[in-house]
Amino acid sequence: MKSNIFRPMRLLIAFVAVAAAFSLMGHPIASPEVFAGLSALAFAGEVDMPGLADLLKKQGAAFEEFKTTNDNRLKAIESKGFAPEDTVAKVQKINDELTELGKQIADLAKKSNRPTTGQSSLTPEKEEHKQAFRTFIRKGDANGLSGLEKKAFQMGSDVDGGYLIDEEMVTEIDRVATTVCTLRGLADVRSIGKASLEFRVKTSGTAARWVGEGEAGGESSSPKYAQLEIYASEMEVEPWAYNTALEDADFDVTADLISEAGLGFGEGEGAAFITGNGIKKPRGITAYDMVANASYAWGKVGFITSGASGAFAAINPGDKIIDLLHSLRAAYRNESTLLMADTTLAEIRKIKDGTGNFYLFNPDPSGKFLGYVLGVPVVVDDNMPTLASNSFSIAYANFKRAYRIVDRKGITLIRDNLTTKGTTKFNMRRRVGGGIRNFEAIKFMKFA
Questions:
Q1: Strand 376-380 versus strand 337-340 pairing type
Q2: Can you give the pLDDT at residue 65?
């Protein structure tokens, strides 16, 4: 018993030792908040600490090997004008390994966010609704509904047909969707009870004046506001199951529905929040008018050029990344994030500072992010454009202040066991919108 009690502490100490070793190799140390969170999770038994420590150890070793191999590639280019094919191939191989390790660490970290199982905290009425709804999912109306089930359904009936699923299912679906849709986990998310959310943003304030002795003060200029509105558009997913599977007691149809709906909604949202045109869907961050940051104006998004078409600049490419990080006003840099596709991150891993002394990228030993570029956390979303001529492949933003997502309350389910013989379809609908709410808080790098 004593050994079991102290096992989480020993695992946590082992993890801290690995992180300390990373620090000596030049990696950033995890924040105190990360260690505090991992400590709590270790005692709760929610994190595979040995697995996490092993992955982080592999990541650190792989990055050291990557730096050595890439240094050889850069030296060959400097002296010969080209790098041997085997060296280039080795750099790419290790880069791919780092990408895969990053995904595994991220997946393990996401598992720690799963809600713990235990005694239900639902009220008796909501617990009744939950149980009645699960019976409806498995058996449908054909077998008849008890008075209790009918009472439960009346709590969540929807005028468009179908029933609003219970709150626990909504929470689970949102958790899966957040895992799939990167931007949902970064942006400002609001729940609404109507078709859209209207709000005002102050684009300029009242300026102060200097007044000399005996001079009459002037009149204050009026602050300027922008009126914005984000509509919640309808999206649907329709997972299905064989009727025979619904009849089997060992088939958890509710869990399967939650997983399929969460993945479907998450994938659809993920693409729309990045590239959506705003017509019957959210407006994505890349779908606004882009202007050179020197010509930035409210309603447009500023960008910095990379210095080469579809690539980073051939000479001192890190300088342009520094320009990007300073294009955002200092007030927004706290809690800012770099968002890009995996393939873009793979290219950044190869970049060193102008003196050639250190790499701009370092892995995150905590596993919270895929790494840091000059101290700024990196988040990967494969919906972001890949490197191409004139592509906007890197977003740098304080996404909580830059982008707003609106969710119309409730997810509606229609059970259909008639359309296709032998199967039951579960049509699930929700309403989601999204758009930039603060154009000052987001910038892009244009590969031009």
A1: parallel
A2: 87
Structure tokens at 424: 């039951």
DSSP 283: B
* Interstrand relation of 301-305 and 442-446 (parallel, antiparallel or unpaired): parallel
Give the pLDDT mean for 72-85.
85
Phi, psi of 117 (to 5 degrees): -85, 150
163 near 135, Cβ under 8 Å? no
CA distance between the termini of the chain: 63
The predicted structure's pLDDT at residue 309: 96
Using an 8 Å Cβ cutoff, are 239 and 416 in contact? no
In eight-state DSSP terms, residue 286 is T
Give whole-number Cα distances, 437 to 2, 285, 350, 378, in Å.
Answer: 54, 10, 34, 22
- Which of these ranges, 101-105, 150-154, 207-211, 280-284, has the smallest mean pLDDT? 150-154
Please tell me the distance from the alpha carbon of residue 290 to that of residue 444, in angstroms, as a whole number.
9
SS3 category, 224: strand
**104 to each of 34, 181, 346, how far by Cα in Å?**
18, 17, 16
* Chain-centroid distance, C-alpha 150: 39
pTM above 0.70, yes or no: yes
Residues whose CB falls within 8 Å of the CB of residue 87, separated by 6 or more in sequence, listed in order: 69, 72, 73, 76
What tokens appear for 397 in the block? 């933003």
Q: Give tens-digit pLDDT for 305-354.
A: 999 999 999 999 999 999 999 999 999 999 999 999 999 999 999 998 88
**In the numeric block, which tokens belong to residue 237?**
């997913």
Which residue in the block uniquely carries the two structure tokens 């990045």?
274
The single residue listed with the structure tokens 């617990």 is 127
Question: Rounded to an integer, what distance in angstroms lies between the CA atom of residue 332 and that of residue 91?
Answer: 35
Surface-to-core class of residue 267, CB atoms within 10 Å of its CB (0-12 exposed, 13-18 middle, 19+ buried): middle
E-strand stretches of 155-248:
163-164, 188-192, 196-204, 224-231, 233-237, 240-242
| pLDDT value, residue 433 | 95
Which ranges in 253-329 belong to alpha helices (H)?
A: 253-275, 317-327
Please tell me the predicted confidence (pLDDT) of residue 27: 45
Phi, psi (5° rounding) for residue 89?
-65, -40
Are the C-beta atoms of 253 and 138 separated by less than 8 Å? yes
Is residue 315 helix, strand or coil? coil
